[in-house]
Amino acid sequence: MKLHTFKIGGVHPAENKIAAGKPIENVPLPQEVVLPVAQHIGAPAKPIVQKGDKVKRGDRVAEAGGFVSAHIHTPISGTVTKIDTCRTPQGMPVTAIFIKSDEADRQADAETIANQKPIRSDVEVSILEPKQIISLIQDAGIVGLGGATFPTHVKLSPPPGMKADVVIINAVECEPCLSCDDMLMREHPAEIVKGVQLLMRAAGVNHGIIAIENNKPEAIEAMSKVVAKVAGIEVMPMKVKYPQGGEKQLIEAVIGKEVPSGALPIATGAIVQNVATAYAVYRAVYLGEPILDRVLTLHDGKEGRNLRVALGTMLDTLIPEGTEYEKIILGGPMMGRTASTLATPMIKGNSGILLDPVYAHRGEVEPCIRCGKCQDACPMGLEPFLLSTLSRLKDYDEAENQKIANCIECGSCSYACPANRPVVDYIRIGKAKVMAAMRARAAAAAPKK
Questions:
Q1: Residue 385: exposed, middle, or buried by beta-carbon count in 10 A (0-12, 13-18, 19+)?
Q2: Are 234 and 208 in contact (CB under 8 A)?
Q3: Cβ 177 vs Cβ 333: under 8 Å
């Protein structure tokens, strides 16, 4: 069996997926949620509730702040106690909606969940027009759940003159330690496939490909059994290689096309959606449920758990009492970000909480030996050491000339570096400066209204 992969660069970090095979646990709804209005790429949402308002589970509490934005809904019934600021994992203040429930609210939510049934049959779903499906997705506040959190309705609305040929479902989950997507496929393959069909219809394509790395045989089997009964969708086993789940790398691996520098992925005719996003689309259209929770992996190095957690749950409440840890990483060890606190709410982009001491310390930084391993590992064909050096020296003009904006911040360069240099850290800083300058130039050049 041929295993697909991208051609340039990549690394093979230890998988360390100790939570693989652990059933998804439903964490009880919290008594209070804190819902940041910025849980997605794009403009923050705007609160549409006020202190003292009563809300029910599933109610919209913040409207999208623009086309590239997403609505926010409450996962619990209760009373809005305040509109205030909370802290991001890195300690930055962000506007949030605080909602608290009482016993009657919790009882009502329990009944709502217990009695949940589809609001649309297969026949009713089959007659929905593409625009109607996209509208339902937008109404549900669905974003990319692989971590990027790009609003899904925007991806399904390509610029004029561009058309999709295929929908690629990113079920690769190439990050070490994470297994939430794996378990979602094992437990909900039929629902995911229905979500894939909806995404295909919304995009106006007849071909869907579910890409899964070959280290998830149970997920491949579960999805293949369902797909065998469905026309136009195939499961494609992928070689185990990081960052296989990068959008550009996945497109190249699956359909053999390269996304041109500076272009959108749709330029290749492909729309990529995460497998958890497909599941959320199913729930939105069939059950009428906006995105209220998500599955994440809790990994402490000793045992792993896969948890379904309501948005707005404080992350520190998920850690078993007495758990010791030296460092907090939200996400996986390669692209996850170090957090200064777990006293921060669960948001749509959280795919994991990593407390494993193996990832708590970096090796001592040593002088670069010009070995070129960072360049060999770069899946974008860049020169990471050069970009890192230019960023460190604040030569952002030359960094832009050297295509720093093409960096996907996968961390392969830092992983491959035998001198333990923080290559991607400097690149990330430089890229942010360059991107800000590029946006400022674009805004200045735009026609005045």
A1: buried
A2: yes
A3: yes
pTM for the full predicted model: 0.95
In sequence order, which ranges of 63-129 are alpha helices (DSSP H)?
Answer: 103-114, 122-126
162 token code pair: 């561009």
Range of the domain at 159: 122-287
Enter the DSSP assignment of 111. Answer: H
What tens digit of pLDDT does each residue of 223-279 get? 999 999 999 999 999 999 999 999 999 999 999 999 998 899 999 999 999 999 999
**Is the model's pLDDT at 1 over the cut of 70?**
no
How many angstroms separate the CA atoms of 63 and 93, rounded?
A: 20
Q: Answer yes or no: do 393 and 262 share one domain.
A: no
Domain identity same for 266 and 165: yes
The helix (H) or strand (E) run that includes residue 353 is: strand 352-354
Cis geometry, peptide bond prior to residue 217 (ω within 30 degrees of 0): no
> What's the structural domain count of the chain?
2
The span from the CA of 128 to the CA of 377, in Å, is 45
Strands (E), 37-92: 46-47, 54-55, 60-63, 72-73, 78-87
Residue 6 within a domain: no
Residues 249/243, Cβ–Cβ less than 8 Å? yes
Give the residue from 128, 132, 116, 37 showing the smallest Cα distance to 288. 116
- 3-class SS at 347? coil
Instruction: Provide the token pair at 345.
Output: 């709410």
